[in-house]
Structures are given as C-alpha cells and as structure tokens.
Here is the input.
Amino acid sequence: MEKIGRVKDLKRGESVSFQYQGKEGILVKTKKGKLVAYSRVCPHEGGTIVWDADINKLLCECHLSIFNVDDGTVYKYSSVFDKMDDLTPIKLEIDDKKDIYTI
Ligand code: FES
Here is the structure.
C-alpha cells in the first residue's frame, strides 16, 4: 500500500496526480464526493489522462477521448479508432485517519 493523499486535502470536483509503483495516477473526488483513481496512461497510445471538472469527465488530450469519472468507462472516442479500452482503475483504501492508500 502506498499513501497518496488525505481526504481533507481534496475538495469535491478536484483532482491530484500521484505516483504509485513507479507510475503516475490521478485521484479525483467527484462532485458527489466519491474518491476514484486511475492510471494517467491512456489505453489508446499512452497519452496523459486529465480531469475536466467542467464536463465532469476524464479526458485524454492526445486524441480527445473522454471517460466517465465514476467507473473509468469510455464515454466518447474518435470514430477513426477501431475501439477504445476503459481506463485502468486503481483500488483505494482509506484508513481511520482519512489517509488514502492505493492497494
Ligand atoms: S492516446 Fe489517448 S486518445 Fe489516443
């Protein structure tokens, strides 16, 4: 388990990047208050995943694929691609002190 942050440091609708197992992840507290985390590596060609609070989605700026924040599933992608895989979720655990860990 790696500590990646504290619940109180993240407001609803905000995100923060973190390192885990030598890779980069993105942690989002959704507007509903749910904590979710994903690899920042786009499943298409490795572009960087970013959080867009305005549309309440995650997106890859490389080819503008869009992903649902609640479960990382594909919301929209270019019709020139054959397919697009979902984002890779990172399991989280929150301890008694409200510290957030990847598991
Ligand atoms: S690398 Fe992300 S959509 Fe192509």
Summary: The CA atoms of residues 59 and 66 lie 4 Å apart. The first strand starts at residue 2 and ends at 6. The pocket of FE2/S2 (inorganic) cluster is lined by residues 42, 44-47, 60, 62-63, 65 (CB under 6 Å).
